[in-house]
Design a protein that fits this description.
By secondary structure, this protein is mostly helical. The protein has helices at residues 14-27, 32-35, 41-56, 63-76, 80-90, 97-105, 114-128, 137-143, 148-171, 177-180. It folds into 2 domains: 9-57, no CATH class; 63-171, AhpD-like (Up-down Bundle). The chain contains 10 helices and no strands. The mean pLDDT is 94.
Length: 186
């Protein structure tokens, strides 16, 4: 649900119907952040391809680290939709409620274990002060064991969630407890 018209699953045809069917088969349902694209199926397809590549593709970043980036960036942008969606996913990997709370508030990031702390603090800085980034920001990431490919993935995931947060916030994409749960991790 959002502030703009959306095509319901039962009303979709052609390419959009095929995309909805594939999402339901692979993920168990269609998220509201994708459904908001229903008036432009090509954009939905591009968005979904980028999401799947960044969040599930081969990377030196773990799935937990990728979800943590999503949560911290979204918290920095006050995007409750994405914070809650990705915190739900992150709960599969991190069972510590204190750590989850730190990530969901993006406060106290420096207290996390060093690798995760460096990753999410970098994502937070890139989100809140992109013009203040310098080459020296990469040194701590390398010292924490990240390769240049990992740093690229971190940057792409951070940029992706800044993009998605603006879609969710700009179009009033909402969520419910039912919409948050039941996704397959694929």
């Amino acid at each position: 649900m959002s502030w703009i018209d959306e095509i319901e699953i039962d009303d979709a045809d052609g390419k959009l119907a095929d995309m909805y069917a594939e999402l339901i088969e692979k993920r168990g349902k269609v998220s509201n952040i994708l459904k908001v694209h229903s008036l432009n199926a090509d954009a939905m397809g591009g968005h979904l391809d980028l999401y799947m590549t960044l969040m599930f593709g081969k990377s030196g970043l773990s799935r937990a680290e990728r979800e943590a980036i999503a949560v911290v960036v979204s918290a920095g942008n006050d995007c409750a939709y994405c914070v809650n969606h990705h915190a739900e996913a992150l709960r599969r990997y991190i069972k510590d409620d204190v750590v989850l709370g730190i990530l969901m508030s993006a406060d106290g990031l420096e207290t996390l274990e060093p690798r995760l702390s460096n990753i999410v603090r970098h994502a937070e800085k890139l989100t809140s002060a992109p013009g203040a980034m310098t080459e020296s920001d990469l040194f701590e990431l390398r010292d924490a064991g990240l390769s240049d490919r990992d740093i690229l993935d971190l940057t792409l995931i951070t940029a992706y969630f800044n993009f998605v947060n603006r879609i969710a916030l700009g179009l009033g994409v909402s969520y419910s407890a039912e919409e948050l749960s039941g996704y397959r991790d694929s």
